[in-house]
Write a structure and sequence with these properties.
By secondary structure, the chain is an alpha/beta fold. The chain has a domain at about 25-115 and about 185-250: P-loop containing nucleotide triphosphate hydrolases (Rossmann fold). It has 8 helices and 10 strands. The protein has helices spanning about 15-20, 70-80, 100-110, 130-135, 145-160, 175-185, 205-220, 230-235, and strands spanning about 30-35, 45-55, 60-65, 85-90, 95, 115, 190-195, 225-230, 240-245, 250. α6 runs parallel beside α7 (about 205-220). The termini are far apart.
């Protein structure tokens, strides 16, 4: 050891540094995301999103509200790798989606993300269980012991559809079809579930039951949820609510 006079003072992290060091990396992060569309040839692009930045932690529930046409579905499409931003970054599990090849984006959409839309998009010619298993068809690894079918039956039982496994969608109510759509979105154990107005075609009581289901599955499946909704009472069931206004995302006051 050198002379005492040459020793450097011991570094002591500040409170802010300790907080930053201990904070977990977000599951999802958007950094200054801009999305603009050109309506007619030669026209200037019209921005829908004007620098959106926010983060979602693993297992968190977030609601996004805003008037019709404010860009809520556009934002969800960017998060879900269904579209690309005009500027800015969408980072999922530490990876910038813009830098990934299409084959990897397809894998992420199928395995890391789950989607529930206002319309259930069930295949009418397939049974309830077959519809749930559709996303597993793209997985190349062997299904040892029929684990995927077993998971489908277990999840359908959790949402009260044990006795409807072999029914076609046409025999289900609207709420039952949406429950099947939720189970289908969860079959591959995604990290993040994206729900775009999933209650828009349901009556008030059925809508509330579906959001109750999302809250329960968030807790039991450890899946983060981003819910886009126009219904403040349903959005309030999420842990945090953000409002999209004039192309910006801000906490709801």
């Amino acid at each position: 050891m050198g002379p005492m006079g040459s020793m450097q003072p011991k570094w002591v992290p500040t409170r802010e540094t300790r907080t930053a060091m201990s904070a977990p990396e977000p599951l999802l992060e958007l950094r200054d995301v801009v999305k603009a569309y050109t309506s007619t040839a030669g026209a200037d692009p019209m921005p829908v999103l004007r620098g959106v930045s926010f983060a979602v932690q693993a297992g968190e529930t977030v609601a996004i509200v805003g008037p019709s046409g404010s860009g809520k579905s556009t934002l969800l499409n960017l998060i879900g790798a269904l579209d690309t931003p005009s500027a800015g970054s969408v980072i999922l599990a530490g990876r910038d989606l813009a830098g990934l090849p299409e084959a990897e984006l397809a894998r992420i959409r199928n395995c890391d993300l789950g989607f529930v839309f206002q319309l259930h998009h069930l295949l009418p010619q397939c049974t309830v269980q077959e519809n749930v298993l559709v996303p597993t068809l793209a997985i190349s690894t062997p299904d040892a012991g029929g684990e995927r079918a077993a998971r489908a039956r277990q999840l359908l039982g959790r949402v009260g559809l044990t006795n409807r496994l072999d029914d076609l969608p046409g025999r289900l109510s609207g709420g039952e079809r949406q429950r099947v759509a939720v189970v289908r979105a969860l079959i591959n154990r995604p990290k993040l579930l994206l729900a775009d107005e999933p209650t828009g075609s349901l009556d008030q009581d059925t809508a509330a039951s579906l959001v109750d289901l999302l809250v329960t599955l968030n807790r039991d499946e450890k899946v983060a949820v981003i819910l886009v909704s126009h219904a403040p009472a349903l959005a309030a069931r999420m842990g945090r609510t953000l409002q999209l206004r004039n192309g910006k995302l801000e906490p709801l006051i």
